[in-house]
């Protein structure tokens, strides 16, 4: 499972790319019933502009084709709901169905981890829905530890599992 050299991860800033990232998250999470749309949560994830403004919205691109997206957030910022002091987190990872098996989710996760290392974070954390079993296997294969004591729910009916990775040498 290698990622072709032409796949790059960039910070999404262009309005059209930001909108495409939001639509991809909503399509993947809603279309595959990875979460129940309690409290209109899919509309929240579909609106990626606040994430691009207040966090780092990443896009994995093959030329101009959007393959996946993730949001990177430092502790004590608007989109860091799990990260504590000296931590950073990834939120809303989504990979287009046609791009699965190409290492796109791993590439986006590694991009977030590397950003956290460069910023001097000691730990990197993330959340994942209980139905996202392929992602769970990927995280565990990358060395993430399951952190059930930090499981949480952003809205009623959306229960998230947590994982963490130490960034200390």
Structural notes for this entry:
With 169 residues, the protein is α+β, with helices and mostly antiparallel strands. 31% of the residues lie in helices and 31% in strands. It has one domain: Aminopeptidase, CATH 3.40.630. Strand 2 and strand 3 form a beta hairpin. The radius of gyration is 15 Å and the shape is globular. The model has no long low-confidence stretch (mean pLDDT 90).
Please identify the structural class as seen in this structure: alpha+beta
Q: How much helix, percentage-wise, in residues?
A: 25-40%
Describe the sheet with the most strands. 8 strands, mixed
Distance between the termini: 27 Å
CATH topology: Aminopeptidase
Overall spatial form: globular
Nutshell version of this structure?
The chain has 169 residues and is of the alpha+beta class. Helix content is 31%, strand content 31%.
List keywords for this structure.
169 residues; alpha+beta; Aminopeptidase; eight-stranded mixed β-sheet; globular
